[in-house]
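Proteins fold reproducibly. Next comes a concrete instance:

***
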Amino acid sequence: AYDSQNRLIGYANATLTARYAYDALDRRIAKVVDGAETAYVYDLSAEDPLAHDDIVMEYEGGILTRRWMHSDTVDEPVGFEEYTASSGVGSGTEHALYADRQGSVIWVTEPATGQVVAGYEYDGYGQLTQIAGTLSQPYGYTGREYDAESGLYHYRARAYDPAAGVFVQSDPLDMVDGPNLYAYASNSPFNWGDPEGTNQTATALFGSSVTAAGAGARTEQIFTGAITLAGRISSALRTITLVTNPGAEAKVVSATNPFPPPGDCGPDEHRRLQDQINELKGLGRCTVSMPWWQLAQREHYFRKLARLRAQINAQCFRGGDEGHQIAQNNATEAAQNCIEQMARKAHQY
């Protein structure tokens, strides 16, 4: 099942049913498989230089089960801490992930023991050909999340079927990558990737992927940063209580130790976010006369601007700044306009 924005919101077969939920930034924030709910928290900290709209926390049934760490390369999960009895930072079991040149996760180890607890092999289009170990974790082919219930990969804007080697939805940017609206990476997955599900790129395949050779020390260093970051996020979450009733007048009813104005972030953090916003907010709207590359670039920038507006509003104004709310909606609408202009341009040919 799909919603009006062509996002996958439901899946069913003879033995199970699954539902998926998204936030205003089109990030998948939860899935429910036969009544079992898994929820996700994304890149909350403005101090995190590695933010790429990646999952940093994973909840099952409302209980924190994993904290994740990602590198500064898109779709490169490098480690997680898994909890059973306690969810305190450092109280769980650490795991490190290793990838091949496509960014596909091939090993999962426990750094404390050096034991390989999971291994994966894929064909060229991402179909699993061999699995070793009993550990269950979501990341697989090209570092994207694998939904075992459907056999599909979540490539943000679209779902990908590795058995068929195609996306199950048409390209939201129309023919920007060619006339086949369902093709994955122009049918050349060793040379191209498509981390957003909208626009293929070669850069994702030649970044700083964690490989088996000489990666242990780097993974340990990054994972230490993950625990520190996760601790900051956890502490921040514990200080805030949200009102869940729709239409509630106050979105935040309590917060401890707030910083001085402009809100719950320090002046330096606010200035850093505002400077990033100022670099983007003067962009003009997309028009059909613009070249393809400029339309795609501006769509990306407007999406980034919307995320920054949401971030500064949440962290520095407790979600209550009307100006940032309006600006976030305007940026989202401007990004959608870019997509519409690309569709118009495609129909001119």
